[in-house]
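Worked example 4.2. Below are the chains of a multi-component assembly; read each line carefully before continuing.
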Amino acid sequence: MESRLTARANIRLVALGDEAVVFHPSSWSSHVLNAAAAAVLEFILERPRTRQEIAALLQELLNAAEQPSLQKHVESVIGDLCIIDLIHEV
Amino acid sequence: MKSDHGRRIGELDESLIRRSLLDRGLVLDCGAARVRVRSDVPLLGGLLHTLYSAFPLEDPDGVFDATVWLRTRKGVRRFFRPQVELLIDGERPFEPFPLDTPVPLLEWGINYTIATRLNNFLLLHAGVIERGGRAIVLPALPGSGKSTLTAALATKGFRLLSDEFGVVRLSDSALLPLLRPIALKNDSIDIIGRWAPDAVIGPRFPKTRKGTVAHLAPDVAAADQRSLSAHPALVIFPRFDSAREFELTTVRRSHAFARLAVNSFNFELLGPDGFDALARLIGQCGCYELRYRSLDRALGVLGELLTVADRSQ
Amino acid sequence: MVMDRARLPKHVRLLLDVLGDSSRIGGLDANDWDVLIRAARVARLLGVLAVRVRSRFAHDDLPEPVQRHLKAALNEARFRSSRAEYMMDAVARLLSDLGAPLVVLKGGAYIAQRLPMAEGRLLADVDLMIPRATLGVAERLLLDTGWAFQKTDPYDQHYYRAWSHELPPMRRAGQALELDLHHAILPPIGRLRPDTDALFEFAVPITGTRFRVLSPADQVLHAVAHLFQDSDCVGRLRDLVDTDALIRTFSSREPDFHAKLLDRAVKHNLGRPLWYAMELSRRWADTPFPSGFVLELSRSFRPNGLASTVVLGSASLTLPPADPDREPTPAARFAGTFMGFRALWLRMPPWLLVYHAIRKGMRNVAAWRPNQNGGTANA
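Applying the procedure described above to all three chains together yields the following structure tokens:
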């Protein structure tokens, strides 16, 4: 069974332009998310996602120049969202 | 005293104000908060008569957001260095001031009280003015010239809500007035004096912690509308820049959110409610950074932006 | 003796009346409300007042300026409670490897047990008690993960470690409150010496958490001990309100609670403070006590006439919040000094008292002298 990234419960996510601000319900800290991170978090909030699904999403969003390092971007975004404890892996 | 109700503080005799301060107190109804002031400092009556002249005279009995006691310091020292101290419900938040500078102490004391108590609203550290029901939020940052700009706007066609506090209602992110005299520092005093010769500016207090301070009294229109809210339309980060005629750049909304959150008195304390209210506010606003050196030009630009914002809502 | 409620200053009377029965707000005029709110604020009970008033009256039925005060206080309380829970969670995970019981005390305990009285409380910090033997390791674990001591003055550090029952307060970035790590509930060299082993022995785990809390009776005794024990006795009405709430809650949950309370008071040598607390609580909060309990406690622990008069008389003057509009009267100021001295007396042996006083005096003088830059340093 492939692992999935899941979002914490009770996160508040508000889109502002193509970026977003997000509220962590336990630490009460707020964060600014860039477009990629915002899209990925929104995606995961719909339901738990595999890395493959996230990569597919980012592939659509990123422009041509960024494609070769797609995997790096995927790991970077997932890593950041994990560090601020908005998502975790199950 | 009852027959004076319906009048403004400025219409009273100064001696009456001094007596009220010594007795039950003088009410400063700023809109979102009402403060009752008591004092035995003889100078204060005349100063409040000037600076809060447009404010209504109200009954000193009732429930207030704060009761502030400005009193002459007792003790042997008063013969060498007369001092005034501020007491709020048994607390003394500041060191005493010289007796001849009661107003800066009072104003900072009221700021402190509001900033620590009014946690039923989201309190931004910002000036707020409005026109046509649409408000401009001007975050306070050192060196921004925010107070000068706020004062300039307030005296030429815009209504002043507040110079220090952006009071945001949690339910709908509307901005509420917290009307107070605007503290002008150093050069600003002359600049505004020339800009608006008819405006009432109180006496100068030299040698305060922030240099020379004088206060611009809110006018009758602002005082009469102190209960009128406004919808947020613009967030403007001002920067006085003598090298630049004028420059307007858009600020990313997410960044404007972060800068306002960090520059707020109680964003963290309010948790999810503060987050929601601020996100909603930013969502309704255009956000810009404005570098200017001419007040005229700045006003023109802000007026235009406000008109555009008006049309697009 | 305890001052009769009717003779208390208006602001105290109003506060006790409304806290005791919130339906009494019906009889308040605007001035009364102002006095009540200001007194509650000084006593740090505005949040508790808000909860009790709002349990009977809808927000919109209250005068508008009152709504503002109460809403603000509830927001502040919510902030502190939620931050306390967040901190306890983080600390529990960190210290779980200790293999030692983690007993959370006071406000944190009320929150962990989800007691109704926890609502609206404005707690200042989180108090955690662990066995003395594990204190060194725990301190290391905390310091290694970003926690730091607030008081770095070597004298204060020494004072806390050598004489006190707790380490100096600790803070961490990202945590809004302070953490107080205890190895006992009262100073080990004080005159009141509860049985710490017995506290741990009877501690109760909270399901779903890694924490324990003291047994209900011990929680009451802890609150009672602090009613008179802490050095700033002035304005500790809040501790009395807590004590009353704890007794009511626990006695409604356990049929033989009062017997246990008596039992544990004997075990911990806290019978005398319990008697003082009972007297105050009966008169000022109408706390119900079974007559058997009152008789038994009085028989065993009621002090001689003069002692009880002085202590209860002083407490009557110092426990309530000061009138927000006035300086404390000379009598109250003296009583405050007496209670403060007594508290210090209870905490420290006489020779240590003298040393403490001299050192504190010296520090104040040092703060007075100008620093190198010509200004005066502030202590």
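Take a moment to check your reading of the output against the notes. The longest helix of chain A spans residues 70-83. The first strand of chain A starts at residue 5 and ends at 7.
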